[in-house]
Amino acid sequence: MTKNERTMVVIPGDGIGSEIIGQASRVVEWFDRHRGLGLDIKERQLGVNVYEKHGTLIQDETLEAIEAADATLFGAIGGDGYDEIPRHIRTETGLLSVRRRLAMFANIRPVVAFDALVDASSLKPEIVRGVNMIILRELNGGLYFGQPRGIEDIGNGERRGFNTMAYTTPEIRRVARVGFELAKERGGHLTSVDKANALDVGELWREEVIRLGAEEYPDVLLNHLYVDNAMLQVVRDPKQFDVVVTENTFGDIMSDCAAAIGGSLGMLPSASLSDPDKEGRRQAFYEPIHGCAPDIAGQNVANPIGTILSFAMAMRHSFERPEDATLLESAIANTLAAGVRTADIAGDVSTTVSTTAMGDAILDQLDRLAR
Ligand code: IPM
Ligand code: MG
Fold first, then answer.
1. Domain 1-110+264-371 has CATH 3.40.50.300
2. Which of 81, 186, 249, 357 holds its CA 20 to 30 A away from the CA of 323?
3. Going by CA atoms, what residue is nearest to atom 9 of ligand 1?
């Protein structure tokens, strides 16, 4: 390994994970061969497939590999057998715990409407065309991790399940800061989404975002929406958004909803980032926002684009290769413009292609662009 070589851990995971990662890996190889990307790739596993062999969703060695790498590219987790895994193993060793243990609190979920797909959306083309927004989801706190949480017996054979939506001032400020920084690089507009009219945590969230904006980002236009209204605005007029910053659960829900804009959940990539440490290294985890889709696993029909776009994000945010990221995004736009469609984005196109054929088509467009 040469001294400046960087490492990427590649983890297929469960369900359609191996199929979509399979295509993404071909794209990684293309960039290695044609653009001298020079990544040292380490293949690992995570998920139900690991649990079946080792009684844990992730082995320590894998977590260490992720921690030591410059980036991780991940497929999906879950599916058959997941619900039968004891709850403490799911919460302590699952994907959510990896995000938290490596302090990857900033989850960047771009929502871009490809021109060729505006007719595949369930929303009207004029609503969707031109949308280019980022949902910045807080990923280490809020309702997913707040204490106390659990399921308890309350007598008479009855039980009570509970979670806590909680944020501290530093937790709010660090994610809001990422939001302001992203907005500064883009359209200069940050929308903070909360539920300040009903929740104390939302009231604090709003106060802290306003305070940080006034102190450090006076040039970023800041507005606030309650989450219920924000969800309506996502389907009513998504072009009003540039960067949205929000609580963990709100961001989870909102990003699935916003996937309607992209035509399919299979289109959306994500990056989960920590703050840089003293040496300037940060944890970075790239994955599509969809799940493991057990209903179509093993059929070679899943859309690999969300995963391949996640690799484009890795080139942009971890490997200082913004031109290569743009090249890959253009190859995908061209593939879609040429009418190549997996079933989920078929719209009114009559023939759809397999996962592998979508990979072929994207590689072909890369070859054309590189000529
Ligand atoms: C996501 C997913 C996960 C989440 C699931 C699989 C636990 O929905 O990344 O959006 O809720 O964060
Ligand atoms: Mg989700």
1. no
2. 357
3. 289
